[in-house]
Amino acid sequence: MSFNELGLPEAILRAVALLGHESPTPIQRKAVPIALAGGDLLAAAQTGTGKTAAFAMPTLARLGARGPHGAPPRALVLTPTRELAAQVAASFRDYGRHLSLQTEAVYGGVGMFPQTRALRRGVDVLVATPGRLIDHLEQHTARLSNVEVLVLDEADRMLDMGFLPAIRRIIGALPANRQNLLFSATFSPGVRRLAAALLRSPVEVDVAPRNSAAATVTQRAFHVDKDNKRPLLVHLLRTGDWGQTLVFARTKHGAERLSNQLEREGILAAAIHGDKSQGQRTRALDQFKQGRVRVLVATDVAARGIDVDGLTHVVNFDLPNSPEDYVHRIGRTGRAGASGEAISLVSSEERAQLKEIEHLLGRTLSAATVAGYEPTHRAASGSQSQPAGARRRHTQGQNPAGHHGHRRDAGGGRTHGRAHSPSRRGR
Ligand code: AMP
Q: Which letter, b or e, does each residue of 150-185 get, where b requires 16 or more Cβ atoms within 10 Å of its Cβ?
């Protein structure tokens, strides 16, 4: 499919050509015609899928010509962070370069006055972080009475960052009759609730990320006793054909201890977490990138922004506190079309967390036990406590395929060995 078939005005097509985009990305193919037709949209798309253009192009097409001097914005885009606001505003300017429309970004951490001055001159597209926009509303330096299109970008992150009350207030200041486009990497229950309150008969679109963990990351869960997690990890590292491995631990202390224990087992490891200095963190990451340590043990916060080529395995030594973090964690592997594997070590105490993750993903993870490391306390496949013998019969009864090498399926009947097609999208 070419851009010409999307129904965009010629001025935007020229801008797209100038940017060197040859054909629309999947999210653009799906979202642009719907948005151009004026409908509400609920879109699952991550950074890197071309999502910004997917809402910028139809929004610009709708606005067309510039409003009169001093007019309040007709399109409002809310983003979670300053960096994203600046980036999104730059994209609107890029795609709208042949349209005479004014785009401004307002976000915190910088002075209000230049933003106020720009708003006073007149803005067609306003890109804002929720907190700073509230400041402008309170000071009556921004008016939202002319907004025809509202875009929420990275809605899941905005909710994670506690912006729901601010978003509600902003929505309260908008005209009721408008188009709403909601983009989110994941559809958490919070995002679903927001969508239900905000959108009118939305069309839902969903694409795999371009740098596509969805297509290339195999996700599996191994049920194991808590105390046996470390020995199992060592066993997997020794016997599996694993390359660079990023291991997630829940606490700083846990990350440090695990890294030391792996080193004692002769596996080169380093840890990064909030108690390490920036210098130590940079050093550990460099060693990992250069392959001088094979395993990097990290906490969620410390692992933000880690992008290592050739990372073959992500291990959830502890399941994350929020299911969204699971999606972020496994996105570290399988980048740029490389294949990767995400392994979760699940103790009986973590069953509820696993369920939440599966709920978000919209599917059951392929689950197994490893011979010699079977959990003793609980059934691998069920939620009831059963003795080991009963569990074995139960598991095999549920899945007649029985053994796959040294692994047994226990995925609640929906998964089958490793052949399950992974998808990171929750619906
Ligand atoms: P985003 O998902 O909006 O963060 O976009 C990621 C990157 O993809 C940006 O650098 C865009 O310039 C680029 N991009 C957007 N649409 C296309 C396209 N159709 N073809 C190639 N690159 C694109």
A: bbbbbbbbbbbeebbebbeebbeebeeebbbbbbbb
Q: Is residue 425 part of a domain?
A: no
Pocket of ligand 1 contains residue 59 by CB under 6 Å: no
Within-domain flag for 403: no
Taking residues 157-177, report their average pLDDT. 94
Same structural domain for residues 193 and 234? no
Average pLDDT over residues 249-262: 95
pLDDT in the model for residue 305: 59
What per-residue confidence (pLDDT) applies to 209?
47
- Atom 13 of ligand 1, residue of closest alpha carbon: 50
Q: How far is the CA of 118 from the centre of ligand 1 (A)?
A: 28
Q: What is the pLDDT of residue 216?
A: 67
* 21 touches ligand 1 (CB under 6 Å): yes
pLDDT at 353: 93
**Are 242 and 167 in the same domain?**
no
- Considering the domain architecture, whether residues 159 and 69 belong to the same structural domain is answered as yes
* pLDDT-based confidence at residue 143 (cuts at 50, 70, 90): very high
- Cβ-proximal residues to 180 (8 Å cutoff; 6+ apart), any chain: 40, 41, 149, 150, 151, 152, 198, 199, 200, 202
Nearest to 337 by CA among 193, 168, 211: 211
In a domain, 371, yes or no: yes
Using the predicted structure, report yes or no on whether residue 406 has a pLDDT greater than 60.
no
Query: Taking 80 as the threshold, does the pLDDT of residue 257 lie above it?
Result: yes
Is any atom of ligand 1 closer than 6 Å to the C-beta of 53? yes
What is the DSSP pairing of strand 125-128 with strand 75-78?
parallel
- Same domain? For 234 and 329 the reply is yes
- 202 with 250, same domain: the answer is no
User: 387 C-alpha vs ligand 1 centroid, how far in Å?
Assistant: 53
Atom 12 (ligand 1) nearest CA: 50
- How many folded domains does the chain comprise? 2
| Ligand 1 close to Cβ of residue 47 (< 6 A) | yes
Are the beta carbons of 161 and 80 closer than 8 angstroms?
yes
Residue 322 belongs to domain with CATH number: 3.40.50.300
Residue 31, domain extent:
3-206
Residue of 52, 91, 153 with the most ligand 1 atoms within 8 Å of its CB, for mutation:
52
Whether residues 302 and 193 share a domain: the answer is no
Ligand 1 within 6 A of 88 CB?
no
pLDDT in tens, 115-135: 999 999 999 999 999 999 999
Q: Is residue 343 part of a domain?
A: yes
Q: Verify that 282 and 371 share a domain, yes or no.
A: yes
Is 57 within 8 Å of 68 (Cβ atoms)? Answer: no
Residues 251 and 192 in one domain: no
Q: How far is the CA of 216 from the centre of ligand 1 (A)?
A: 20
pTM of the model: 0.58
